[in-house]
Amino acid sequence: MRRVREGAKEKTGAKQRLVWLDCWRGLAVLSMCLYHGLWDLVYHFEKSGFDWFSGWQGYVWQQASCWSFIFLSGYSYFLGRHKLRRGFTVLLTGWAVEEIVSAAATYSSGGGEWQQVIRYGILSCLGLLQLLFYLPERWYTSYRSNPFRKVHW
Fold first, then answer.
1. What pTM value is reported for the model?
2. Other beta carbons less than 10 A from residue 78's beta carbon
3. Are 61 and 35 in contact (CB under 8 A)?
4. How far is CA 57 from CA 50, 54, 64, 66, 129, in A?
5. Which range, of 2-11, 33-42, 125-134, 144-153, averages the lowest pLDDT?
6. Stronger pLDDT, 151 or 124, i.e. the higher one
7. How would you label 134-144 residue by residue, b for 16+ Cβ within 10 Å and e otherwise?
């Protein structure tokens, strides 16, 4: 039970948080951070002792993190509001991360191109999918509520 401070009003119609979704999202972020930290150790700093990371175990870990983010984003898309703004925010964040990583990789390699720069990452993928889902989802919900009404955008 959540405690409410005396004198504070509770929001009317506030949606409950899905605890399992928040936990899964937190684990996915933690897993992704650990994976990328190990990736930097193995491939950028060339640390030895992580042979398993280049094998199938590392691949399974990578794919599990990636598909968790895709599933969670798709599931959460239909729970939220401001979908167009969120799509643009995620897409622009993905673009910013790509540019920062590209600049850092170019700087760290002495001006030459570093071979491991990712040009289309998971944030770009999720942002683009959210933008592509916006219009069909809006049309469908409008059509479903009244199939004979003219849709105004």
1. 0.65
2. 10
3. yes
4. 11, 8, 11, 14, 28
5. 2-11
6. 124
7. beeeeeeeeee
